[in-house]
Amino acid sequence: MVRQAQRVEIVKVAICVWLLSATALSFEVVLTRLLSVVLHYHFCFLAISVALCGLCLGSYMAHALQNNANERFKVDLSWVSASYPICILIVPVALFKLLLPIGASMTGNGAIIFIIASVGFITMLPFVSVGFMLSILFRCYGRVSGTLYGADLFGASCGCIIAIWLLNALGGINSTMTIALIASLPSFFLRGVFTSASGIGRWLSPAVLVFISLFALSNMLLKPPLIDIPKLKQTHGILIKPLWAELAEEGQHQKIVWTKWDAFGRTDLVKSVLDNSIAYIYTDGHNPSIMLRFDGNLNKMREWKRFIGFLPYRLRKPERVLCLGSGGGLDVLLALLGGAKHIDAVDVNPALPELMKQFKDFNGGIYDMDCVRFFVCDGRSFVKRSKRRYDILFSALTQTAAVGGIGVSLVESFIHTVEACRDYIEALSEDGMLVMLFQEPKLVLRWWLTSIAVLHQVTGKHEKECALHTAVMSIKRQAMLATPYRYIVLVSKSPFSEKERLTMLKVANDLALEALFIPMLAETDPFDLVRTGDMSLREVINRFSSLANIAPATDDSPFFLDLHVGIPFTLYILLAFAVLLFFVFIPSAFLIERKRFGKPNMLYAYFSIATLYFGFLGMGYMLIEVALLQRLSMPLTTPTHALSILLASLLIGSALGSVLSQRFKENERLMVLVSLSSGLVAVVGVCWFFFVAKCVEWLFSFGDLIRVLILSLLLIATGVPMGMPFPTGLRFLSASCPTLIPYSWGVNGVTSVLGSIVAVMLGKVYGFSYAALVGSSLYMLIALASLVLSRINLSRHLAV
Hints:
By secondary structure, the protein is of the alpha/beta class. It folds into three domains: 1-238, Growth Hormone, Chain: A (Up-down Bundle); 295-543, Rossmann fold; 566-800, Growth Hormone, Chain: A (Up-down Bundle). It contains 29 helices and 15 strands. The strands form three sheets. Strands 7-6-5-8-11-13-12-14-15 form a nine-stranded mixed β-sheet, sandwiched between helices. Strands 1-2-3-4 form a four-stranded antiparallel β-sheet. Helix 1 runs antiparallel to helix 4 (109-140) and helix 1 runs parallel beside helix 5. The two termini are 38 Å apart.
């Protein structure tokens, strides 16, 4: 009977751990989407990372409050478990009703400091609660850490899928409230174990559940809802996304007429009250795409032939055109005006088909025309999988830089890398042309250098000869404030003929365009220096190195939009915060432990080993995870679902490894298990370093379903050994020094945030493959140290 009761208790605790982990990761994903709609991506990344440090703070609080090592630690979690869903519910209310409006109205650097500090603090609260409760549960049930950690990881993998489903079904704010509702359930499973079964504790959980249910239901049913994204009149231009700032301007005549939330982001259709001929599609409040009023009569759209984006159609008459990032259909309309017979339009936003269909009376049903095929897919993935050859491959303002939808990672798309440019050129017909439109001049130069480098690789020609395949033009400087379509870069698979170059010059004069580079006819610095051979690409890059990083980006380091030389200052701030948190709590935790231990030599040994062991594990796991998620997301068609599938697979593998580790008995063989599993992770990480690029290329030879299956199996296999060392270490502490379990959770949490930051830094400077290599090195250190410890029998040695 006693054993049966213990098993029931462990099952209840495992379910509670599953719920806590699932809701925490779901909330992290939804919170990322909420902040990405309002804040520019680097500030969003900073706020999310600060919030996740709450897991560490909760663990340290549990470490400070626990009893002595020889006593079974008991604590009433009634109030903590009840505060967790309330904290989740408070986040959107505080963000959109209080903090963001105040921060947006502030001036100078004070606005940045206030936004990061206040948003980071309020979003940290739910993670503090989770960190505290998980630390307590593992502290008390450390001997079954393999089972509990398996539940933790499996809950996190389920959280990935739950978040995607909620965002698609309910949107960002309502998803938060639903997660708060689910987060109120763990307290029911803890009743009688860690919460009071009588008194106020008996009614606390049901009261919280009822309150959140009523609040969430009210927000869903009321029009307008209680909580929504406000108009933010900002005085600091780099904080808030343009849509919300523009809507808050006095005298503006725009209004949102259609909105859809999904896992990809928030899509808004904005119209002007004064001009009914044009509408703008905003994705996450940024990068508006144009949707024109069109009734199917191309003669009425002739004015758009004077648009800079129509230039390639003045040079050649294409039959097949591919539009990447087609948005509201402007690119397709230009292709129709240019006489294209077959047009493939590709956009990654899954909300576009519904939007375009609902407003087909406005846009003329342009995506439903017989000569047009529309695909919801990542542009680069589509090009890799397509067997067609195109006369023009057109992309206008296709820019993506965002916080990763899953986990703490800063990612960019693979649209503008060296490998992408090679894929585009290979997808062209013999006389095909690659066309890119940009807003910023430094990005123009960076893409032009990328094109020259790829043409040099593909054709074997000298760099100065490759320049004859290219042309660069822009609108006049005084017209740039009115439109983001400012620069155009043309890259032809064959050199531009003299007739085409003369046509370009004539068009530039007729349309009042600036001819920045037309080979041998109009050449400006530094384009002319490359064409004449006076400077190589490397010399041009070095010349601008003090101003911006214009070196071609690669798939391994795809930070095309990030022009910072070296590492952005934002990452240094975040790294300093995480390091400070780490080193502030180490001495404070050490002082607490000194009061509990009678033997200083035991304290120094256990404390040092726990800090290094769990610190290396946290950083190593995240370095490998971020590197794999970044590199392996491209073969899947949609980036949001790609990250969900990849992370869920890795976490499921780790959960299986954790459960398997529980089968090993608690003796010196635990260290052997750690050594073997860590060594295997190190080997796998090195293999990914050398073969990930070939693996990605190989995967494109399969269909969508097979690719997903292969990637999932590979990541599950990778995750199995990655899930073994952490619970094994907790089981070792449970048998020897259980008071260090909450502290170890905290160390692992803060070093996980550190690992994600370092992964992005390494990815920016060296490439994400090197992040995986560094993570593998940390696992190898753990493997070697564990092997040594297993030989000297650590438990007996420290007991002397």
